[in-house]
Amino acid sequence: MSKGLGVWALALLLGVLIPGTSRGHALGPFPWLVTALTLGLCLALAATTLFLVERLGPVLAARPPLALWEAIPDLLWGALALVCWPAAWGPPGFPALALAFLLAALPGELRWLAQTLPRESPFPAAWGPRAIRISRRLALRSLLPRWLLARLPLWITATLILERMLGVRGPSSDWMMRLAFRDHWGVACWILGFALLWVLLQREGA
Amino acid sequence: MRLRLAFLLALLMPELPLAPFRAGWPCSWLHPLGTDALGRGALLRLLHASARSFGFASASTLGALALGLVLATRRGTGYRTPLRALPPLLYLIPLAALGDGLGWWGLGLLQAGLLGLHLEPPLRARLGPFLEGPAWRYGEVLGAGRLHRARTWGPWLWDQGAGLFPSAWIGAIWCEATVRTLGLGPGPHHDSLGLLLQEELPRLATDPTPLGWGALFVALGLAAASKIRPQEQP
Which of A54, A85, B41, B173 has its C-alpha lying 20 to 30 A from B155's C-alpha? Predict the structure, then answer.
């Protein structure tokens, strides 16, 4: 843990000392509205995943169609959103991003959670559907914090790609923009955020 | 793995010659997908760009595997876990933006480094029991140098790592395609699948070309092929 913290401290130092003049003021304020919408989107994704995994159980992880759906990278979902978006509706904004993000992230999340659920055969399967439901609910409740912490970086990556493809200024592309514009303190805040995520994940795993 | 490594030769291929006077020709027997805006046969360009991308992915995956093997045979991983906390693209895209785009060498080296870090844990899980056993220590006890051990155990270690090659290779292709599609990769003078996607994807909704559909088809085919046979995930 201490070595890891040392690496984050070094990253923080590098973030503050990026060579070049800071042009952070050209970026404007942080996109709070899109951030709130993105958080809502992540909550919708989490709720849908939990609902489906609770209903369908660990067998979901072995379904070949899910694997095929998961194989398509975020980039192609963004492309699909671009292709399918009717030109008459104007530029694809947050709605197209939300659709592409849900399509890109859902299969991976379903498989991750379904694979992590404990086996149900012979027990609690032998005790009936109610016991299975209770067992799944308890397992999901204990998995929830670790799942969210482990998958959040992947959601940030997916939204970063989609935001850049669909021309939406959102929280994930803000990380890239702060670095590109050499906004030292903005970059430092992002690195601190990632470090906090890592620390929480380490504590959760311990 | 050998087939994928054969694509390394594609990196030596020259660029296709430009012939602007043949630009935008429709599909014909000579050019089944027509020609692109610079007069190159679209089918030939699709094959050339795909082979280039596959070769580039093979090269960076080889580097990643070599790095992963070196890291997996060393003790202590503490300082590397934070670097693995984020997916490679979450580093690669902002770093590319910081440098106003990455050249082939920069992209390849960064990609190999980041993928190598992610390959370390599965390699360590495979090699761990052996590295803690007497056979590995034997050479150390007898005073054999690193070079000798690399020569003795290198082929076996490489065989152990080869199982992870296909999934890492697909990861490398998506990294390159994503960075180039987002406009942060090498310049337009080197063709690749990512460059094709960057040029053709925005046009698909309004002004689609057979080349654009072909590039999308190749990308979707790659995604599907990566899941038809179950592979080991790094």
Answer: B173
